[in-house]
């Protein structure tokens, strides 16, 4: 078996037939690992994720969708990598991998070995939906002398809700059996009463969202949801609502959204947003909104009862309330399913294989630039160094690090960095310019002159800066006439900023002094 890495949406699309086959064969597979769900995620987020795909002969037998993150260690003053689950881009309630059960022992070992080839300090698998057997197979591949693993909890501090418990209902073949066998006598009586009330009230109706009404109904749900949560979510409510809207829109585009709306005449009283997993015949309740000002009808009871009846009538086998042990879920006859929050860490506390993951270099470079801008010079230098450990020939970093060192008058180190940059790209005029300035700082004037002339030769645009430093190199070698010539050449050019204006002023001063002598 071999493990391929899929990290583009175009490549991911090619795997749909194989992915669907593995998903169908895997008894542990769940909706948030379906091709349909993940295609909604990956079409929105084009980068940052990758999939470990295990291939046996001509077919793929396992897929593990993951995400690479970059973190900063405040204690070590360095960057490190974290691998997490890709589905959390879209608040997936479950995570994990799918695998053909006939190959799971070997495939899981291959997945673990591939992960150990990568660069990371932690693997955080939130909401891991996995059998005990497969969990043991996965962890058995991580040497206890090198790695540690921890199971974390996710209990809300304010609401005391355990988000690693997922209540669900195994649905019977008919709704009467559900009422009689899944509900308590009191709840069954309540459900029947409210269903009768709904059916007998001509002002009440339930509509099911369609492509023609998705936009309207999602808007209703979001508005009601915001009203309920605006106080507890605070200033995050707008961002959260927008993300929720995108998730629902994507689900509607993928034909996986089931959304019943309860109306009283033309007024919406409540909405459920549910996902449909046609392959596994599971209906997953995701989000709800209700009119908090109307207490005439228990919209939640009516909508859930309606949806459970619809699910049974359409052959669904599971009604999944997803994460959170809120008490109302158990009134519908739900039982608990436990999921995990698994963290695998290196005991060294640093990245596995000693360097940053090359895929995170651009992100680290952006953060490093911000460190430099805000005066966090130690952190900035650590960033440059870590990038160059991962990719010693990264031209942009070499150039930025060389300039960083030059600005601190660390000319010896700057010269070494610019020489490495020239080894990487000898045709880059900026490399020679930086080398020339560093040599000038070291008072190696002849070498500086050679480097700066090479920069001018490679750069067809006459630059004030390069000619100015060439003039200084010639001045340092006591070649005043040649220096004056270079200084004179820049006086007719247009300065781009105050630094170049200052260089031109210095050039005029030198020329004036030469004439006076």
Question: Can you describe what's shown?
Answer:
The protein is α+β, with helices and mostly antiparallel strands. Helices cover 49% and strands 18% of the residues. It has helices at residues 9-14, 16-25, 35-44, 104-116, 132-139, 175-182, 185-200, 214-233, 237-253, 299-313, 327-330, 361-373, 377-390, 395-407, 411-424, 429-441, 445-458, 464-476, 480-491, 498-516; strands at residues 2-6, 49-56, 59-73, 78-85, 98-99, 122-128, 147-151, 168-170, 204-208, 257-258, 260-264, 267-277, 282-290, 318-320, 340-346. Strands 1, 2, 3, 4, 5, 6, 7 and 15 form an 8-stranded mixed β-sheet that branches. Strands 8, 9, 10, 11, 12, 13 and 14 form a 7-stranded mixed β-sheet that branches. Helix 7 packs across helix 10, helix 14 runs antiparallel to helix 15 and helix 18 (464-476) runs antiparallel to helix 19. The longest helix has 20 residues, at 214-233.
Brief sketch in words of this structure:
The chain has 20 helices and 15 strands. The protein is α+β, with helices and mostly antiparallel strands and 517 residues long.
Give the helix/strand layout.
Elements: E1 2-6, H1 9-14, H2 16-25, H3 35-44, E2 49-56, E3 59-73, E4 78-85, E5 98-99, H4 104-116, E6 122-128, H5 132-139, E7 147-151, E8 168-170, H6 175-182, H7 185-200, E9 204-208, H8 214-233, H9 237-253, E10 257-258, E11 260-264, E12 267-277, E13 282-290, H10 299-313, E14 318-320, H11 327-330, E15 340-346, H12 361-373, H13 377-390, H14 395-407, H15 411-424, H16 429-441, H17 445-458, H18 464-476, H19 480-491, H20 498-516
Parallel strand pairs: 4-6, 13-14
Antiparallel strand pairs: 1-2, 2-3, 3-4, 3-5, 6-15, 7-15, 8-14, 9-11, 10-12, 11-12, 12-13
């Amino acid at each position: 078996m071999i493990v391929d890495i899929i990290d583009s949406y175009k490549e991911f699309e090619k795997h749909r037939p194989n992915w669907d086959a593995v998903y169908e064969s895997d008894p542990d597979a769940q909706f948030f690992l379906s091709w349909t769900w993940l295609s909604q995620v990956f079409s929105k987020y084009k980068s940052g994720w990758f999939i470990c795909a295990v291939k046996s002969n001509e077919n793929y037998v396992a897929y593990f969708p993951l995400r690479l993150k970059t973190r900063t260690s405040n204690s070590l003053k360095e960057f490190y990598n974290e691998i997490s689950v890709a589905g959390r881009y879209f608040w997936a309630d479950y995570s994990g991998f799918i695998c053909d059960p006939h190959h799971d022992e070997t495939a899981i070992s291959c997945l673990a070995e591939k992960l150990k080839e990568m660069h990371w300090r932690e693997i955080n698998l939130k909401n891991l939906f996995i059998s005990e057997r497969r969990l043991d197979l996965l962890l058995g591949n991580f040497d206890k002398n090198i790695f540690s693993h921890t199971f974390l909890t996710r209990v809300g501090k304010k609401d005391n809700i355990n988000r690693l418990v997922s209540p669900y209902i195994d649905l019977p073949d008919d709704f009467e059996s559900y009422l009689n066998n899944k509900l308590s006598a009191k709840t069954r009586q309540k459900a029947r009463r409210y269903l009768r009330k709904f059916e007998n009230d001509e002002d009440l109706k339930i509509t099911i969202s369609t492509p023609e009404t998705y936009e309207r109904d999602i808007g209703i749900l979001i508005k009601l949801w915001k009203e309920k949560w605006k106080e507890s979510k605070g200033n995050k409510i707008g961002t959260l609502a927008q993300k929720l809207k995108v998730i629902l829109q994507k689900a509607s585009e993928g034909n996986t959204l089931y959304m019943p709306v309860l109306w009283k005449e033309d007024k919406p009283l409540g909405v459920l947003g549910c996902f449909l997993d046609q392959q596994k015949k599971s209906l997953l309740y995701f989000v709800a909104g209700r009119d908090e000002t109307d207490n005439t009808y228990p919209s939640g009871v009516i909508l859930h009862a309606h949806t459970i009846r619809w699910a049974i009538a359409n052959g669904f086998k599971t009604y999944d309330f997803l994460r959170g042990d809120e008490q109302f879920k158990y009134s519908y006859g739900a039982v608990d399913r436990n999921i995990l929050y698994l963290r695998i860490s290196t005991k060294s506390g640093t990245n596995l294989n000693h360097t940053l993951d090359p895929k995170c270099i651009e992100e680290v470079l952006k953060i490093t630039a911000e460190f430099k801008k805000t005066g966090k010079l130690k952190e900035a230098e650590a960033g440059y160094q870590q990038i160059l450990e991962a990719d010693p020939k990264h031209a942009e970093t070499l150039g930025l690090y060389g300039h960083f060192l030059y600005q601190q008058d660390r000319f010896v180190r700057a010269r070494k960095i610019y020489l490495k940059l020239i080894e990487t790209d000898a045709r880059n005029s900026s490399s020679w310019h930086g080398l020339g300035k560093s040599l000038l700082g070291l008072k190696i004037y002849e070498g500086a002159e050679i480097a700066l002339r090479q920069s001018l030769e490679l750069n067809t645009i006459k630059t004030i800066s390069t000619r100015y430093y060439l003039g200084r190199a010639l001045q340092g070698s006591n070649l005043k006439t040649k220096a004056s010539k270079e200084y004179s050449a820049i006086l007719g050019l247009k300065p781009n900023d105050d630094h170049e204006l200052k260089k031109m002023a210095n050039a005029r001063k030198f020329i004036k002094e030469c004439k006076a002598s």
